[in-house]
Amino acid sequence: MSSYDVIIIGSGPGGYVCAIRCAQLGLKTACVEGRETLGGTCLNVGCIPSKALLHATHMLHEAEHNFATMGLKGKSPSVDWKQMQDYKKNTIDQNTKGIEFLFKKNKVDWIKGWASIPEAGKVKVGDDVHEAKNIVIASGSDVAQLKGVEIDEETVVSSTGALALKKIPNKMVVIGAGVIGLEMGSVYRRLGAEVTVIEYLDTITPGMDGDVQKGFQKILKKQGIEFILGAAVQGVETKNGKATVSYKLNKDDSEATLDADTVLVATGRAPFTDGLGLEGLGVAMSKRGQIEVDDHWKTSVDGIYAIGDCIAGPMLAHKAEDEGMAVAEVLAGKHGHVNYGVIPGVIYTHPEVANVGLTEEQLKDDGTPYKVGKFSFMGNGRAKANFAGDGFVKILAHKETDRILGAHIIGPMAGDLIHEICVAMEFGAAAEDLALTCHAHPTYSEAVREAALACGDGAIHS
Ligand code: NAI
Protein backbone atom coordinates (compact mmCIF):
# COMPACT_ATOMS: atom_id res chain seq x y z
CA MET A 1 0.00 0.00 0.00
CA SER A 2 1.34 3.44 -0.95
CA SER A 3 0.43 6.64 0.72
CA TYR A 4 -0.11 10.08 -0.85
CA ASP A 5 -1.13 13.60 0.05
CA VAL A 6 -3.54 13.61 -2.89
CA ILE A 7 -4.93 11.00 -5.24
CA ILE A 8 -6.79 12.32 -8.26
CA ILE A 9 -9.25 10.01 -10.01
CA GLY A 10 -9.26 10.66 -13.74
CA SER A 11 -6.60 12.16 -16.00
CA GLY A 12 -8.68 14.39 -18.27
CA PRO A 13 -7.91 18.13 -18.44
CA GLY A 14 -9.33 18.57 -14.93
CA GLY A 15 -7.49 15.65 -13.36
CA TYR A 16 -4.08 15.88 -15.00
CA VAL A 17 -3.82 19.64 -14.52
CA CYS A 18 -4.83 19.23 -10.88
CA ALA A 19 -2.21 16.50 -10.43
CA ILE A 20 0.59 18.57 -11.94
CA ARG A 21 -0.32 21.64 -9.88
CA CYS A 22 -0.56 19.56 -6.66
CA ALA A 23 2.92 18.17 -7.31
CA GLN A 24 4.28 21.63 -8.13
CA LEU A 25 2.92 22.84 -4.79
CA GLY A 26 4.87 20.13 -2.97
CA LEU A 27 2.16 17.53 -2.42
CA LYS A 28 2.91 13.83 -2.96
CA THR A 29 0.52 13.10 -5.79
CA ALA A 30 -0.88 10.19 -7.78
CA CYS A 31 -3.43 10.15 -10.58
CA VAL A 32 -5.55 7.07 -11.35
CA GLU A 33 -6.47 6.44 -14.97
CA GLY A 34 -8.10 3.31 -16.40
CA ARG A 35 -7.66 4.12 -20.09
CA GLU A 36 -4.57 2.96 -21.93
CA THR A 37 -3.44 6.58 -22.27
CA LEU A 38 -3.68 9.75 -20.20
CA GLY A 39 -5.77 12.78 -21.18
CA GLY A 40 -9.36 11.57 -20.73
CA THR A 41 -12.16 12.16 -23.22
CA CYS A 42 -10.73 15.48 -24.38
CA LEU A 43 -7.39 14.20 -25.63
CA ASN A 44 -8.41 10.69 -26.66
CA VAL A 45 -11.90 10.99 -28.13
CA GLY A 46 -12.94 14.63 -27.88
CA CYS A 47 -11.40 18.07 -28.27
CA ILE A 48 -8.07 17.07 -29.79
CA PRO A 49 -9.04 14.45 -32.41
CA SER A 50 -12.02 16.54 -33.52
CA LYS A 51 -9.71 19.51 -34.02
CA ALA A 52 -7.42 17.42 -36.21
CA LEU A 53 -10.37 16.44 -38.44
CA LEU A 54 -11.69 20.01 -38.45
CA HIS A 55 -8.28 21.31 -39.50
CA ALA A 56 -7.78 18.74 -42.25
CA THR A 57 -11.24 19.25 -43.72
CA HIS A 58 -10.93 23.03 -43.51
CA MET A 59 -7.76 22.77 -45.58
CA LEU A 60 -9.71 20.66 -48.09
CA HIS A 61 -12.44 23.30 -48.18
CA GLU A 62 -9.88 26.03 -48.84
CA ALA A 63 -8.31 24.00 -51.65
CA GLU A 64 -11.69 23.33 -53.25
CA HIS A 65 -13.16 26.80 -52.88
CA ASN A 66 -10.47 29.44 -52.58
CA PHE A 67 -7.16 28.23 -54.00
CA ALA A 68 -7.98 28.95 -57.66
CA THR A 69 -9.09 32.50 -56.81
CA MET A 70 -5.68 33.12 -55.27
CA GLY A 71 -3.95 31.83 -58.37
CA LEU A 72 -3.19 28.42 -56.88
CA LYS A 73 -4.23 26.23 -59.77
CA GLY A 74 -4.30 22.47 -60.12
CA LYS A 75 -6.41 19.54 -59.02
CA SER A 76 -7.97 19.74 -55.54
CA PRO A 77 -6.62 17.07 -53.20
CA SER A 78 -8.54 13.82 -52.96
CA VAL A 79 -9.36 12.43 -49.52
CA ASP A 80 -7.34 9.50 -48.18
CA TRP A 81 -9.57 8.71 -45.19
CA LYS A 82 -7.13 6.23 -43.69
CA GLN A 83 -4.28 8.75 -43.84
CA MET A 84 -6.51 11.40 -42.27
CA GLN A 85 -7.29 8.95 -39.45
CA ASP A 86 -3.56 8.27 -39.02
CA TYR A 87 -2.88 12.01 -38.80
CA LYS A 88 -5.62 12.25 -36.15
CA LYS A 89 -4.15 9.34 -34.21
CA ASN A 90 -0.69 10.82 -34.37
CA THR A 91 -2.03 14.11 -33.00
CA ILE A 92 -3.68 12.23 -30.12
CA ASP A 93 -0.50 10.25 -29.40
CA GLN A 94 1.68 13.35 -29.26
CA ASN A 95 -0.67 14.93 -26.74
CA THR A 96 -1.23 11.90 -24.51
CA LYS A 97 2.50 11.14 -24.43
CA GLY A 98 3.10 14.79 -23.59
CA ILE A 99 1.08 14.36 -20.41
CA GLU A 100 2.95 11.19 -19.52
CA PHE A 101 6.16 13.21 -19.85
CA LEU A 102 4.76 16.00 -17.68
CA PHE A 103 3.74 13.47 -15.01
CA LYS A 104 7.28 12.10 -14.91
CA LYS A 105 8.80 15.57 -14.90
CA ASN A 106 6.61 16.64 -11.97
CA LYS A 107 6.86 13.30 -10.14
CA VAL A 108 3.16 12.46 -10.38
CA ASP A 109 2.58 8.69 -10.11
CA TRP A 110 0.20 7.24 -12.67
CA ILE A 111 -1.78 4.43 -11.03
CA LYS A 112 -3.17 2.37 -13.91
CA GLY A 113 -6.68 0.97 -13.52
CA TRP A 114 -10.19 1.99 -12.49
CA ALA A 115 -10.57 3.46 -9.02
CA SER A 116 -13.18 3.13 -6.34
CA ILE A 117 -13.31 4.78 -2.94
CA PRO A 118 -14.02 2.21 -0.21
CA GLU A 119 -13.84 4.93 2.46
CA ALA A 120 -12.57 8.51 2.78
CA GLY A 121 -8.77 8.42 2.72
CA LYS A 122 -8.58 5.23 0.63
CA VAL A 123 -8.57 4.56 -3.10
CA LYS A 124 -8.84 1.01 -4.41
CA VAL A 125 -7.42 0.14 -7.82
CA GLY A 126 -7.56 -3.55 -8.72
CA ASP A 127 -6.45 -5.40 -5.59
CA ASP A 128 -4.38 -2.48 -4.28
CA VAL A 129 -5.61 0.00 -1.74
CA HIS A 130 -3.77 3.33 -1.63
CA GLU A 131 -3.97 5.87 1.15
CA ALA A 132 -4.57 9.56 0.47
CA LYS A 133 -5.08 12.52 2.80
CA ASN A 134 -7.31 13.97 0.12
CA ILE A 135 -9.05 12.54 -2.94
CA VAL A 136 -10.10 14.59 -5.97
CA ILE A 137 -12.72 13.04 -8.26
CA ALA A 138 -12.26 14.20 -11.85
CA SER A 139 -14.10 11.34 -13.51
CA GLY A 140 -15.65 13.42 -16.29
CA SER A 141 -18.74 12.65 -18.33
CA ASP A 142 -20.15 10.17 -20.79
CA VAL A 143 -22.58 10.36 -23.69
CA ALA A 144 -26.15 10.90 -22.45
CA GLN A 145 -28.56 8.23 -23.62
CA LEU A 146 -31.44 9.28 -25.85
CA LYS A 147 -34.69 7.35 -25.41
CA GLY A 148 -35.48 5.14 -28.40
CA VAL A 149 -32.00 5.44 -29.85
CA GLU A 150 -29.42 2.71 -29.43
CA ILE A 151 -25.84 3.73 -30.13
CA ASP A 152 -23.91 0.89 -31.85
CA GLU A 153 -20.91 3.11 -32.80
CA GLU A 154 -21.20 1.84 -36.38
CA THR A 155 -24.39 3.19 -37.95
CA VAL A 156 -25.64 5.13 -34.94
CA VAL A 157 -22.68 6.82 -33.34
CA SER A 158 -21.79 9.07 -30.45
CA SER A 159 -19.04 11.67 -30.81
CA THR A 160 -16.55 8.85 -30.15
CA GLY A 161 -17.74 6.75 -33.11
CA ALA A 162 -18.09 9.86 -35.28
CA LEU A 163 -14.34 10.45 -34.99
CA ALA A 164 -13.56 7.02 -36.42
CA LEU A 165 -16.20 6.13 -39.01
CA LYS A 166 -15.12 3.31 -41.31
CA LYS A 167 -16.02 5.42 -44.33
CA ILE A 168 -17.35 8.84 -45.14
CA PRO A 169 -21.16 8.61 -45.25
CA ASN A 170 -23.25 9.84 -48.18
CA LYS A 171 -26.03 10.92 -45.86
CA MET A 172 -25.61 11.84 -42.24
CA VAL A 173 -28.28 12.84 -39.76
CA VAL A 174 -27.11 14.68 -36.69
CA ILE A 175 -29.41 14.72 -33.66
CA GLY A 176 -28.81 17.90 -31.67
CA ALA A 177 -27.56 21.29 -32.89
CA GLY A 178 -25.14 21.78 -30.01
CA VAL A 179 -21.36 22.01 -30.11
CA ILE A 180 -20.62 18.37 -30.99
CA GLY A 181 -23.33 18.12 -33.63
CA LEU A 182 -22.19 21.24 -35.46
CA GLU A 183 -18.45 20.53 -35.25
CA MET A 184 -18.75 16.93 -36.49
CA GLY A 185 -21.52 17.85 -38.93
CA SER A 186 -19.11 20.41 -40.45
CA VAL A 187 -16.36 17.81 -40.78
CA TYR A 188 -18.54 15.40 -42.77
CA ARG A 189 -20.21 18.15 -44.80
CA ARG A 190 -16.75 19.29 -45.95
CA LEU A 191 -15.95 15.69 -46.80
CA GLY A 192 -18.95 15.63 -49.12
CA ALA A 193 -21.73 14.10 -46.99
CA GLU A 194 -25.28 15.44 -47.11
CA VAL A 195 -25.77 16.56 -43.51
CA THR A 196 -29.13 17.24 -41.86
CA VAL A 197 -29.27 18.41 -38.26
CA ILE A 198 -32.47 17.74 -36.28
CA GLU A 199 -32.84 19.96 -33.22
CA TYR A 200 -35.55 19.96 -30.57
CA LEU A 201 -35.44 23.71 -29.96
CA ASP A 202 -36.32 26.42 -32.49
CA THR A 203 -32.74 27.67 -32.60
CA ILE A 204 -29.31 26.08 -32.92
CA THR A 205 -26.64 26.36 -30.17
CA PRO A 206 -28.96 26.61 -27.15
CA GLY A 207 -28.10 29.27 -24.63
CA MET A 208 -25.99 31.35 -27.00
CA ASP A 209 -26.67 34.96 -27.94
CA GLY A 210 -29.63 35.23 -30.33
CA ASP A 211 -27.65 37.13 -32.98
CA VAL A 212 -25.05 34.37 -32.99
CA GLN A 213 -27.69 31.65 -33.27
CA LYS A 214 -29.26 33.33 -36.32
CA GLY A 215 -26.02 34.42 -38.00
CA PHE A 216 -24.29 31.08 -37.43
CA GLN A 217 -27.21 29.07 -38.79
CA LYS A 218 -27.23 31.20 -41.96
CA ILE A 219 -23.51 30.59 -42.46
CA LEU A 220 -23.83 26.83 -41.91
CA LYS A 221 -26.79 26.71 -44.30
CA LYS A 222 -24.66 28.46 -46.92
CA GLN A 223 -22.11 25.70 -46.37
CA GLY A 224 -24.78 23.15 -47.24
CA ILE A 225 -25.90 21.91 -43.82
CA GLU A 226 -29.67 21.43 -43.60
CA PHE A 227 -31.62 22.06 -40.41
CA ILE A 228 -34.90 20.72 -39.10
CA LEU A 229 -35.64 22.78 -36.00
CA GLY A 230 -38.39 22.37 -33.43
CA ALA A 231 -38.36 18.60 -33.91
CA ALA A 232 -38.00 15.86 -31.34
CA VAL A 233 -36.31 12.66 -32.47
CA GLN A 234 -38.49 9.73 -31.44
CA GLY A 235 -36.30 6.84 -32.45
CA VAL A 236 -33.82 5.37 -34.89
CA GLU A 237 -34.19 2.04 -36.66
CA THR A 238 -31.25 0.34 -38.32
CA LYS A 239 -31.21 -2.33 -41.00
CA ASN A 240 -28.27 -3.54 -43.10
CA GLY A 241 -26.05 -0.64 -42.10
CA LYS A 242 -28.69 2.01 -42.92
CA ALA A 243 -30.75 4.04 -40.48
CA THR A 244 -34.17 5.63 -40.44
CA VAL A 245 -34.67 8.47 -38.01
CA SER A 246 -38.21 9.29 -36.96
CA TYR A 247 -39.06 12.68 -35.52
CA LYS A 248 -42.08 14.73 -34.52
CA LEU A 249 -42.49 18.45 -35.24
CA ASN A 250 -43.29 20.37 -32.06
CA LYS A 251 -45.59 22.86 -33.81
CA ASP A 252 -48.22 20.39 -35.03
CA ASP A 253 -47.15 16.96 -33.75
CA SER A 254 -46.77 15.73 -37.33
CA GLU A 255 -44.37 12.85 -37.76
CA ALA A 256 -41.76 12.25 -40.44
CA THR A 257 -38.70 10.10 -41.14
CA LEU A 258 -35.27 10.65 -42.63
CA ASP A 259 -32.89 8.01 -44.01
CA ALA A 260 -29.17 8.09 -43.36
CA ASP A 261 -25.98 6.02 -43.63
CA THR A 262 -24.81 7.40 -40.31
CA VAL A 263 -26.66 8.98 -37.42
CA LEU A 264 -24.71 11.05 -34.91
CA VAL A 265 -26.34 11.36 -31.51
CA ALA A 266 -25.16 14.67 -30.03
CA THR A 267 -27.81 15.44 -27.46
CA GLY A 268 -25.57 16.12 -24.51
CA ARG A 269 -23.38 14.39 -21.96
CA ALA A 270 -24.00 13.18 -18.42
CA PRO A 271 -21.65 13.05 -15.41
CA PHE A 272 -19.71 9.79 -15.21
CA THR A 273 -19.35 8.49 -11.66
CA ASP A 274 -20.02 4.76 -12.15
CA GLY A 275 -18.08 2.35 -9.99
CA LEU A 276 -16.62 4.96 -7.64
CA GLY A 277 -18.83 3.79 -4.76
CA LEU A 278 -20.14 7.28 -4.01
CA GLU A 279 -23.53 6.09 -2.82
CA GLY A 280 -22.01 3.92 -0.09
CA LEU A 281 -19.85 6.84 1.03
CA GLY A 282 -22.85 9.14 1.31
CA VAL A 283 -21.49 11.70 -1.18
CA ALA A 284 -24.39 14.06 -1.95
CA MET A 285 -25.48 14.07 -5.60
CA SER A 286 -27.86 16.36 -7.48
CA LYS A 287 -30.95 15.08 -9.32
CA ARG A 288 -28.94 15.37 -12.55
CA GLY A 289 -26.31 12.98 -11.26
CA GLN A 290 -23.70 15.65 -10.56
CA ILE A 291 -21.54 15.47 -7.46
CA GLU A 292 -22.45 18.35 -5.16
CA VAL A 293 -19.56 20.51 -3.98
CA ASP A 294 -19.10 23.64 -1.87
CA ASP A 295 -17.19 26.80 -2.87
CA HIS A 296 -13.92 24.92 -2.39
CA TRP A 297 -14.96 21.92 -4.48
CA LYS A 298 -15.36 19.79 -1.35
CA THR A 299 -18.09 17.15 -1.47
CA SER A 300 -20.35 16.36 1.46
CA VAL A 301 -17.64 13.96 2.72
CA ASP A 302 -14.48 15.42 4.30
CA GLY A 303 -11.32 14.74 2.34
CA ILE A 304 -13.17 14.10 -0.95
CA TYR A 305 -13.29 16.82 -3.61
CA ALA A 306 -14.71 16.88 -7.14
CA ILE A 307 -14.08 18.96 -10.27
CA GLY A 308 -14.92 19.13 -13.98
CA ASP A 309 -17.77 17.52 -15.89
CA CYS A 310 -18.92 15.42 -12.91
CA ILE A 311 -19.96 18.57 -10.98
CA ALA A 312 -22.28 21.42 -12.04
CA GLY A 313 -21.35 24.02 -14.65
CA PRO A 314 -20.42 24.01 -18.32
CA MET A 315 -18.87 20.74 -19.52
CA LEU A 316 -15.72 22.35 -20.85
CA ALA A 317 -12.12 21.18 -20.63
CA HIS A 318 -10.83 24.60 -19.62
CA LYS A 319 -13.44 25.00 -16.87
CA ALA A 320 -12.24 21.64 -15.49
CA GLU A 321 -8.59 22.76 -15.77
CA ASP A 322 -9.28 25.94 -13.83
CA GLU A 323 -11.06 23.97 -11.12
CA GLY A 324 -8.15 21.51 -11.07
CA MET A 325 -5.64 24.26 -10.44
CA ALA A 326 -7.86 25.95 -7.87
CA VAL A 327 -8.50 22.78 -5.85
CA ALA A 328 -4.76 22.07 -5.85
CA GLU A 329 -4.21 25.49 -4.31
CA VAL A 330 -6.89 24.79 -1.71
CA LEU A 331 -5.28 21.45 -0.79
CA ALA A 332 -1.89 23.17 -0.48
CA GLY A 333 -3.38 25.65 1.99
CA LYS A 334 -3.66 28.51 -0.51
CA HIS A 335 -6.68 30.29 -1.96
CA GLY A 336 -7.98 28.66 -5.12
CA HIS A 337 -10.50 30.64 -7.12
CA VAL A 338 -12.43 30.28 -10.38
CA ASN A 339 -14.31 33.20 -11.92
CA TYR A 340 -17.30 31.39 -13.41
CA GLY A 341 -18.48 34.66 -14.97
CA VAL A 342 -15.53 34.69 -17.37
CA ILE A 343 -15.36 31.23 -18.92
CA PRO A 344 -15.16 31.38 -22.71
CA GLY A 345 -16.98 28.92 -24.95
CA VAL A 346 -15.81 28.08 -28.45
CA ILE A 347 -17.23 26.12 -31.38
CA TYR A 348 -14.38 25.16 -33.70
CA THR A 349 -16.26 25.25 -36.98
CA HIS A 350 -15.21 27.57 -39.77
CA PRO A 351 -15.83 30.33 -39.03
CA GLU A 352 -15.37 29.74 -35.32
CA VAL A 353 -17.89 30.89 -32.75
CA ALA A 354 -16.82 32.18 -29.35
CA ASN A 355 -18.51 33.78 -26.42
CA VAL A 356 -17.89 34.97 -22.90
CA GLY A 357 -20.09 36.53 -20.24
CA LEU A 358 -23.75 37.41 -20.66
CA THR A 359 -25.93 37.26 -23.77
CA GLU A 360 -28.18 40.11 -24.89
CA GLU A 361 -31.19 37.97 -23.95
CA GLN A 362 -29.86 37.49 -20.39
CA LEU A 363 -29.28 41.24 -20.01
CA LYS A 364 -32.83 41.94 -21.21
CA ASP A 365 -34.24 39.41 -18.75
CA ASP A 366 -32.18 40.88 -15.88
CA GLY A 367 -33.28 44.39 -16.77
CA THR A 368 -29.62 45.50 -16.88
CA PRO A 369 -29.18 48.69 -18.93
CA TYR A 370 -26.79 47.81 -21.76
CA LYS A 371 -25.45 48.95 -25.09
CA VAL A 372 -24.27 46.93 -28.07
CA GLY A 373 -21.16 47.49 -30.16
CA LYS A 374 -21.14 45.34 -33.27
CA PHE A 375 -18.66 45.09 -36.12
CA SER A 376 -18.78 42.88 -39.20
CA PHE A 377 -15.68 41.05 -40.43
CA MET A 378 -16.62 42.41 -43.88
CA GLY A 379 -15.06 45.66 -42.67
CA ASN A 380 -11.80 43.98 -41.65
CA GLY A 381 -9.07 44.07 -44.31
CA ARG A 382 -7.28 40.94 -43.16
CA ALA A 383 -10.51 38.94 -43.12
CA LYS A 384 -11.40 40.05 -46.63
CA ALA A 385 -7.99 38.96 -47.95
CA ASN A 386 -8.42 35.56 -46.28
CA PHE A 387 -11.98 34.79 -47.49
CA ALA A 388 -13.10 35.21 -43.87
CA GLY A 389 -15.57 38.08 -44.06
CA ASP A 390 -18.49 36.05 -42.64
CA GLY A 391 -19.42 36.93 -39.07
CA PHE A 392 -19.08 39.73 -36.55
CA VAL A 393 -17.85 40.79 -33.13
CA LYS A 394 -20.56 41.89 -30.71
CA ILE A 395 -19.64 43.47 -27.40
CA LEU A 396 -22.22 44.12 -24.71
CA ALA A 397 -21.34 46.84 -22.22
CA HIS A 398 -23.18 48.44 -19.30
CA LYS A 399 -25.09 51.46 -20.59
CA GLU A 400 -23.93 53.77 -17.80
CA THR A 401 -20.54 52.46 -16.67
CA ASP A 402 -19.36 51.09 -20.05
CA ARG A 403 -18.10 47.96 -18.24
CA ILE A 404 -17.92 44.95 -20.58
CA LEU A 405 -20.60 42.39 -19.68
CA GLY A 406 -20.29 39.91 -22.53
CA ALA A 407 -18.93 39.32 -26.00
CA HIS A 408 -20.01 37.11 -28.89
CA ILE A 409 -17.96 36.46 -31.98
CA ILE A 410 -18.55 34.56 -35.20
CA GLY A 411 -15.47 34.81 -37.36
CA PRO A 412 -11.92 33.77 -38.16
CA MET A 413 -9.94 32.71 -35.07
CA ALA A 414 -12.88 33.71 -32.86
CA GLY A 415 -11.68 31.18 -30.27
CA ASP A 416 -8.44 33.11 -29.93
CA LEU A 417 -9.86 36.61 -30.30
CA ILE A 418 -12.23 36.07 -27.38
CA HIS A 419 -9.37 36.00 -24.87
CA GLU A 420 -8.57 39.67 -25.29
CA ILE A 421 -12.08 40.32 -24.03
CA CYS A 422 -11.75 37.70 -21.25
CA VAL A 423 -8.67 39.50 -19.92
CA ALA A 424 -10.46 42.83 -20.18
CA MET A 425 -13.41 41.41 -18.21
CA GLU A 426 -11.11 39.93 -15.54
CA PHE A 427 -9.75 43.46 -15.03
CA GLY A 428 -13.25 44.95 -14.94
CA ALA A 429 -12.45 46.93 -18.08
CA ALA A 430 -14.76 49.28 -19.91
CA ALA A 431 -15.35 48.96 -23.66
CA GLU A 432 -13.45 52.23 -23.96
CA ASP A 433 -10.33 50.56 -22.50
CA LEU A 434 -10.33 48.15 -25.45
CA ALA A 435 -11.16 50.93 -27.88
CA LEU A 436 -8.19 53.00 -26.68
CA THR A 437 -5.74 50.09 -26.94
CA CYS A 438 -3.63 50.21 -30.10
CA HIS A 439 -4.29 47.10 -32.23
CA ALA A 440 -1.84 46.05 -34.93
CA HIS A 441 -2.95 46.43 -38.53
CA PRO A 442 -3.92 44.30 -40.38
CA THR A 443 -5.21 41.75 -37.86
CA TYR A 444 -8.52 40.09 -37.06
CA SER A 445 -8.17 41.65 -33.59
CA GLU A 446 -8.96 45.02 -35.08
CA ALA A 447 -12.56 43.79 -35.39
CA VAL A 448 -12.64 43.48 -31.59
CA ARG A 449 -11.41 47.03 -31.20
CA GLU A 450 -13.95 48.26 -33.76
CA ALA A 451 -16.78 46.58 -31.82
CA ALA A 452 -15.48 48.30 -28.67
CA LEU A 453 -15.40 51.61 -30.56
CA ALA A 454 -18.98 50.91 -31.65
CA CYS A 455 -19.96 50.88 -27.95
CA GLY A 456 -18.84 54.52 -27.85
CA ASP A 457 -18.65 57.11 -30.62
CA GLY A 458 -18.74 54.54 -33.42
CA ALA A 459 -16.56 52.13 -35.38
CA ILE A 460 -14.33 53.57 -38.08
CA HIS A 461 -14.74 50.96 -40.83
CA SER A 462 -18.50 50.38 -40.86
P1 NAI B 1 -25.32 20.15 -26.20
O1 NAI B 1 -25.98 20.13 -24.87
O2 NAI B 1 -24.39 21.25 -26.55
O3 NAI B 1 -26.45 20.12 -27.35
C1 NAI B 1 -27.41 19.09 -27.43
C2 NAI B 1 -28.59 19.52 -28.31
O4 NAI B 1 -29.43 18.39 -28.55
C3 NAI B 1 -29.47 20.59 -27.66
O5 NAI B 1 -29.59 21.66 -28.55
C4 NAI B 1 -30.79 19.85 -27.42
O6 NAI B 1 -31.90 20.72 -27.51
C5 NAI B 1 -30.80 18.81 -28.54
N1 NAI B 1 -31.66 17.65 -28.30
C6 NAI B 1 -31.77 16.93 -27.15
N2 NAI B 1 -32.65 15.90 -27.32
C7 NAI B 1 -33.10 15.97 -28.61
C8 NAI B 1 -34.02 15.19 -29.39
N3 NAI B 1 -34.65 14.10 -28.89
N4 NAI B 1 -34.25 15.53 -30.68
C9 NAI B 1 -33.60 16.61 -31.21
N5 NAI B 1 -32.74 17.38 -30.51
C10 NAI B 1 -32.47 17.06 -29.23
O7 NAI B 1 -24.63 18.71 -26.32
P2 NAI B 1 -23.43 18.16 -27.20
O8 NAI B 1 -23.26 18.91 -28.46
O9 NAI B 1 -23.70 16.69 -27.27
O10 NAI B 1 -22.16 18.43 -26.30
C11 NAI B 1 -22.03 17.82 -25.01
C12 NAI B 1 -21.14 18.64 -24.12
O11 NAI B 1 -19.80 18.59 -24.57
C13 NAI B 1 -21.57 20.07 -24.06
O12 NAI B 1 -21.60 20.48 -22.72
C14 NAI B 1 -20.48 20.80 -24.82
O13 NAI B 1 -20.27 22.10 -24.29
C15 NAI B 1 -19.26 19.89 -24.64
N6 NAI B 1 -18.37 20.03 -25.78
C16 NAI B 1 -17.70 21.19 -25.97
C17 NAI B 1 -16.90 21.36 -27.08
C18 NAI B 1 -16.21 22.66 -27.28
O14 NAI B 1 -16.06 23.40 -26.33
N7 NAI B 1 -15.78 22.99 -28.50
C19 NAI B 1 -16.75 20.32 -28.08
C20 NAI B 1 -17.52 19.17 -27.79
C21 NAI B 1 -18.29 19.03 -26.68
Describe how the helices and strands are arranged.
Elements: E1 3-9, H1 13-24, E2 29-33, H2 40-45, H3 47-65, H4 81-105, E3 109-112, E4 115-119, E5 122-125, E6 128-137, E7 141-143, E8 156-157, H5 159-162, E9 171-175, H6 179-190, E10 194-198, H7 210-222, E11 226-228, E12 231-239, E13 242-249, E14 255-260, E15 262-265, E16 269-271, H8 278-281, E17 304-306, H9 317-331, E18 345-347, E19 352-357, H10 360-366, E20 370-376, H11 381-385, E21 392-398, E22 404-411, H12 414-426, H13 431-435, H14 445-454
Parallel strand pairs: 1-2, 1-6, 2-3, 6-17, 8-15, 9-10, 9-15, 10-11
Antiparallel strand pairs: 4-5, 5-6, 7-16, 12-13, 13-14, 18-19, 19-22, 20-21, 21-22
Bound molecules: 1,4-dihydronicotinamide adenine dinucleotide.
The site of 1,4-dihydronicotinamide adenine dinucleotide has 26 residues, from helix 6, strand 12 and strand 18.
